Amino acid sequence: MIRAKNIVLGVSGGIAAYKSCEIVSSLVKLGAGVDVIMTANAEHFVTPLTFETLSGRQVVRGMFEERKEFDVRHVSLAKKADILVVAPATADVIAKFARGIADDMLSTVWLAAKCPRMVCPAMNTGMYEDAATAENLAILRERGVLVVEPGTGRLACGDSGKGRMAEPRDIVAAILDAIAPRRDYEGRTLLVTAGATEEKVDAVRYLTNRSSGKMGFAIAEAAAERGADVVLIAGRVEVPLPEGMREIVRVSSTEEMCREALRLFPGCDAAIMAAAPADYRPEEYSASKIKSETLTLRLVKNPDIAAALGRIKDGRKLVVFSAETDDLIKNARAKLAAKRADLAVANDVTREGAGFGADTNIISIIDAAGSVTDYPVMSKRRLADIILDRLAECYGP
Fold first, then answer.
1. Beta-sheet pairing, 146-147 with 117-121
2. Per-residue pLDDT for 128 more than 50?
3. How far is CA 86 from the centre of its chain?
4. Does 214 belong to an annotated binding site?
5. Strand, coil or helix: what is 338?
6. pLDDT at 356
7. What is the rounded CA–CA span in Å between residue 58 and residue 35?
8. 161, 263, 293, 322: least buried by Cβ within 10 Å?
């Protein structure tokens, strides 16, 4: 998929530069051509010779280094790149990219590039969490730049927190997804639910939850990019509806979502239940606004959508989500069995980076045999592909 692709890898001055050697090696083994651009600070951590040996190409270092052939180097590199990746991307280079500063070869190529661009942040936790860095990354995301979220753990400075550059295998996977998307879901139809439901109390009030729809939409988009016909059922959401869907059905209440899911599931190969339907609804609804000093609501149980689909699976696959605050794996395993699901995606919504509305998530996936695989904090889009990878395994080789 990546053979004959040209990748320009920018390496800036951080301790994580040593990990970039593995990125180059992996890409070359996959058949890609790799040009490495090193900043002056990067050379304090890894020598250019290392990257030249791994890539088989001369490392680009300065704007005015002597060359045997003539071309406008920053333009020629930008034109040949199928993707420009910067790993590690320090706070300094991220700031340059966001503000349009071009004072070295890497930042100049960045501005000249018209191909997809990706940054892999790596820095101290305090620097990563600083408002300036957050703003700069937000600017890059708005411009369509792909951001491979850093991991959480012990840093080179001795601190512990978010800021470690993502592992090389995850960066390589993100590069593959960006320039050589898989089409392993062609011929399959997936039902995806997303967002929150609303349970009316009176003419102006309703009960709901904090689900934004981001995780469900990320799964729907990833599935469509991998060739699936996606039927999306969306409740209340806080983000724009995704493009490329075969059908989008809007619903309000849990009963409506259940009715549509039961209608659509027989025509699908699998269902991924990423929505957060309300478990309860008011027993009575007032067509007029309730005006009272006190209000007592009697709640009744809503239909269990995942369980309803589990009862009519008949060879189809079912993925359920289990958002928990306590006993994550225990509760997720119980849900997996009760719904007759093939996979359960569990996340502790109290953990930093995994809550409602965040662009990242932290999940564990439990299969039908009860085996648990934990995944670190990463973007919901990257996790969407991981979930689809695991679902594809359920179909066998």
1. parallel
2. yes
3. 18
4. no
5. helix
6. 81
7. 8
8. 293
Annotated active-site residue in 21, 115, 157, 258: 157
Where helices occur in the chain by DSSP H, the ranges are: 17-29, 48-55, 73-80, 91-99, 105-112, 125-129, 131-142, 168-179, 214-225, 254-264, 305-311, 328-338, 380-394
Q: What is the pLDDT of residues 261-270, one digit of tens each?
A: 999 999 999 9
Tell me the CA distances in angstroms from 383 to 16, 51, 149, 218, 361, one per residue in order: 23, 30, 11, 8, 8
Rounded average pLDDT over 139-158 = 84
Provide the pLDDT for residue 142.
87
Radius of gyration (C-alpha) of the chain in whole angstroms = 24
Cβ atoms within 10 Å of 151's Cβ, excluding its own: 16
Cis peptide, bond prior to residue 88, ω within 30 of zero: yes
Q: Residue 292 — left, alpha, or beta (φ > 0 → left; ψ -120 to 50 → alpha)?
A: beta
pLDDT per residue as tens digits for the range 317-338:
999 999 999 999 999 999 999 9
Band of residue 13 on the pLDDT scale cut at 50, 70, 90:
very high
Mean pLDDT of 122-129: 92
Q: How far is CA 302 from CA 195, 196, 280, 281, in A?
A: 16, 14, 5, 6
Quote the CA–CA distance of 204 and 188 in Å, as a whole number.
Answer: 41
| Structural contact between residues 354 and 347, judged by C-beta atoms closer than 8 angstroms | yes
Are 63 and 74 spatial neighbours (Cβ–Cβ below 8 Å)? yes
Nearest to 151 by CA among 338, 346, 376: 376
Question: Which tokens hold the place of 58?
Answer: 């001369």
Q: Is 289 annotated as a binding residue?
A: yes
Determine contact, residues 104/30, Cβ cutoff 8 Å: no
The answer to whether 335 is annotated as binding is: yes
Residue 291 exposed, middle or buried by CB count within 10 Å (0-12, 13-18, 19+): exposed
**What per-residue confidence (pLDDT) applies to 334?**
96
- The reply to whether 97 sits in an annotated binding site is no
Task: Using pLDDT thresholds of 50, 70 and 90, give the confidence band for residue 72.
Answer: very low
User: Which distant-in-sequence residues (6+ apart) come within 8 Å of 98 by Cβ?
Assistant: 135, 136, 137, 139, 140
Q: Is 258 a catalytic residue?
A: no
* CA dist., res. 365 & res. 371, Å (int): 8
